[in-house]
Amino acid sequence: MKVLAGDVGGTNTRLALCEVNDGKVLRLVHNIEPSASHGSLKEIIQAFASAHGADDVRAVCIGLPGPVRGRRAQLTNLPWVVDADQLERDLGLPSITLLNDLEANAHGLSTLADADFLVLREGSPERGGNAGLVSAGTGLGQAGMHFLRGKLYPFPTEGGHADFAPSNELEWNLLQYLQRTHEHVSWERVVSGPGLATVYEFLLERAGANAPQWWQEAQSNKEPAEAIAISADDGDEHANAAVDLFLGLYGAEAGNFALKIFATGGIYLGGGIAPKLAKRMKGSAFLDRFDGKGRMRRLVEQIPIKVVLNESAALQGAALFGARHAEP
């Protein structure tokens, strides 16, 4: 079955024509567009369909960054409202389905090979245990996978918008720093690309240090998180401290999510940030903060943790779900 699949992110929107058969996804055509350069999702799909043809497409499925309510979604980090019924009318495409992007990503895990994962910890997975996906990128997405009748069934959450909970004096100071400009401080404010930039600026101010030239250039180029990671590798003191603090926070919240959904089957780390920092995670505070759950330490320290390296997981998951949704 031919499916038009989409993975919309705050930074990029990926579209692909896929052939889906027996749970396997083959991407025939794949295109990436900067999301902010377009006024709507309709505009991007229209251009893609015009360029590559969509006459024999039997289903369309789009993963979206935000809560999907029925056939409509208000996106979190983009000023778009997406309505499946309106898209079907305007584009003339059949069977359009909307999914939360992390739910699509979770569906896509079954389409990946062993080489698409980096094992951060083998752990001792529980047969029949739930699993979870925590993805830091433009935002902080979280999806659960409930084990039922021999299969994992993904479900979306908006857990990244839950209240940020500091656990030491430095993190309390970070919370107070964020409360100057945000009425509600969520985990997404600190564990995301923009969150890493915030952590870095907080540490600069706390140290009374001036912003270096590379930081000013990174902000104008709109690539602050990547610039921080590169500068940390180059030995920049404050960038290094920012990455360390960020990874500790990432581990703390990933462990929180594992407890909340009882993810004894494993936690997967998706998004654009984890693969870039994967080598550094093992020697960072990530695992210690993941496991540091008091009386539940013995439980969470057995949970396997894997980094998802394949950035097309969400796209392939959308294609897989779209094909299943369109089947009789």
- The total domain count is 2
Low-confidence stretches: none
Helix content: 25-40%
Q: Which topology of the largest domain does CATH recognise?
A: Hexokinase, domain 1
Mean pLDDT across residues: 94
Major β-sheet strand ordering: 9-14-13-10-11-12
Number of helices: 12
Taking the alpha carbons of the first and last residues, their distance comes to 12 Å
Task: Describe the structure in brief.
It is built from twelve helices and 14 strands.
Description:
With 328 residues, the chain is an alpha/beta fold. It has 2 domains: 2-108 and 312-326, ATPase, nucleotide binding domain (Nucleotidyltransferase, domain 5, 2-Layer Sandwich), CATH 3.30.420; 113-309, Hexokinase, domain 1 (3-Layer(aba) Sandwich). The chain is built from 12 helices and 14 strands. It has helices spanning 41-52, 84-91, 101-108, 169-179, 193-207, 213-220, 224-233, 237-260, 273-281, 286-291, 297-300, 313-326; strands at residues 2-8, 12-21, 24-34, 59-64, 68-69, 72-74, 81-83, 96-100, 117-121, 131-136, 140-148, 151-156, 266-270, 305-308. The strands form 3 sheets. Strands 9-14-13-10-11-12 form a 6-stranded mixed β-sheet, sandwiched between helices. It has a 5-stranded mixed β-sheet with strand order 3-2-1-4-8, sandwiched between helices. Strands 5-6-7 form a 3-stranded antiparallel β-sheet. α6 packs antiparallel against α7 and α7 (224-233) packs across α8 (237-260). The chain is globular, with a radius of gyration of 20 Å. The two termini are 12 Å apart. 48% of the residues are buried. The mean pLDDT is 94.
